[in-house]
Amino acid sequence: MQEEINSVFCNTLTFTKTYNIIMKKSIIIIAALFLGISATAQKKWTLSECVQHALENNISIKQSELDLEATDIEALTALGNFLPSFNASAGVSENTGLSFNPITNNAQTTTFLSASGNVNVGYTVFNGLRNYRQAQRAKISKLASQYRLTKMKDDISLLVANSYLTVLLNKANLEVLKSQNDVTKQQIKQTEQLVEVGTLPQGDLLEIKATDASEQQSIVNAENQIKIALISLAQVLLVKDYENFDIEDEGYGIVNSIEDRSVEEIIQNAKENRSEIRIAEQNVELANKDLQIARGAYLPTISAFFGYNTRYADSPNFTQVVDPNNPTITQQIGVVQGTGQAVVSDFPNTSTIEVSADPFIDQLYDNDGINYGFSLNIPIFNGFNTRASVKRNKINLERSKYQLEQAELDLESNVYQAYVDAKGALKAYEAAQTALESQELAYEYAKARYDEGLTNAFDFSQAKLRYDNSKINLNRAKYDYIFRLKVLELFFGIPATELKF
Fold it and tell me: Which parts of the chain are coiled coil (predicted)?
């Protein structure tokens, strides 16, 4: 009995150990999965990841890609114009009553089955070079769509960069507000001590507490601005998980690269590389091809054709056969004028008999036919439609030329504006740095005077507020200059995917 109890006790211990091991492993696995999910949920996006994701998922870019695919259809149609057309047709019918036999072309009252088949080949030998112009137009149209897609990608990349930098600006401002609020809280503790010993009046403590409350409100507003900016960026990227979406602060610094290039050099590079100019140039080429195609309608069209047809009918035929027993008969065919003597002649003695239809294959060979040749179509008058089309395309060509000229002027104006904006943003950033240095010295001086009891809390809070605002202004100037610089780099011809921040 004791042995059985010991055995059960040992088994229980073994089971307990095994259970504990399994539970520990399960807990480890569950914890690992949870941490993995948390790590995934807390992923922070870099700027390059945001730009790449937008280029792959943005709806406007996908629409431009579909427009590019549509040009392949246009090219396929243009290629097909050089190839001959090939058509085949076949028909089967059953006729009852009085009908014309398609084989004998005789009217007969009966029921029969008939079939026919046709094969036709056509080829346009010359149509005023319109086929050739259409092929050229398809190539130009594809190139124009590629430039439009490139421009769309540049615009989306710049939009993503601007939204990204807005988030960074709001985060930087939040850090400034939190850092300064920590200083305010320290000042509250210090002021409480000075008020207790009677060095400072109670009003100074209330003034600093009011400043703390105002800063707390500013912090809440800054946090809301960050959330709004993140949601805006997520919407651009088509990311639905707004709650867990966040970006990585990669510590973007100021790089002064404006002085390396003149505005004239940037304008020249923009004219050579920017998609706006390329699109306008291709539109001129398209309008020119449309005009050439319209003028081609003045010229004659030469076409070649070839056709093959055959037919079958299962209706019986009627044929003439000679009587083997009496192969000829004598019949009068006239009289001799003057004598009245009859003129006779021998004729085959035939009779009409019904025979069955020939076999299907034999009829296809016996009843087939071929037709081929050329056709010439000379346009003489079509109600001024061709003339109107030519004039309309001339106007479109002139309009596209003006649009190209306007695009060049707009690009030059935009480059000048971007250059001036970048220059101004750099000066604003440098001025903000100088202002921050001055406000920092003023703040340190005010703090020292306040600690010595030589100034009141209101004057100290005003000095601190100016110092806080100067930090926020520096952040704003910094990210504004970075963005202006990226715009200028795009004009210089640097692809959006290669922008360095």
Answer: 263-297
